Amino acid sequence: MENRNYTIEEMQQQLHTLKEKLESQTIVNDKLLRRAYRKSLNSLKKRKYTLMFSCIFAMLLWFFYFKITDVEFSTIFMIITEGMFATEFVCGLFIYRQLPSMNTNMISAAVGVSKFRKDMINWFRISMVVLMFWIGWYIYELSGNSDFISMLVFVAVGAVIGVVLELIKYRRLLNNIDELLSQIEDLKKDNN
In 10 A of CB 153, how many CB atoms? Predict the structure, then answer.
């Protein structure tokens, strides 16, 4: 009888030790998930600065392009072009402000990231339509130039390269957002 009690006590002690190890493993798991969440969120937030830099760079590049070429653009075209860059800058900042902070709870983080994803998809669609109209208008503005064909080839190659690169960045962004949402879901499951 005493041997049996000793075996039961030993089994209970082993069960208690196993429970402690499992609980500590869950904490490590939670920490790893939170670290992955922070890393994904930081990469999305860093993209905001890339957007700011690229808008400012594009505005400066456009200004210098206008100054060094002999092409005469209409005033309304120039105003709308600069307005496009400024709108991209402001709307991008507004959309990126919706990203949750690191310390927010998981439910509001999921809502914020989902809204950010939806707004990015809508903004990308609008931007591509506006860009296509702008390229058409740009070609029209160039039509009076003597180097029209060479400039048309330059515009076509630049537009194709730009759209392909933007599509790649857009797909990566959506993949990062989807990964972030899945990490948030994992964290919510672990906390429940």
Answer: 10
Q: pTM here?
A: 0.68
- In the predicted model, what is the mean pLDDT of residues 64-73? 72
Domain count, the chain: 1
Q: Which amino acid is at 184?
A: I
CA gap 69, 56 in Å, rounded: 20
- Residue 59: CB partners within 8 Å, gap ≥ 6? 82, 85, 86
Torsion of CA 68, 74, 80, 83, to 10 degrees: 40
Structure tokens at 172: 């990566």
Write out the residue range of the structural domain in which residue 23 sits.
2-191
Q: What is the pLDDT of residues 134-164, one digit of tens each?
A: 888 888 888 877 777 877 887 788 888 888 8
pLDDT beyond 70 at 121? yes
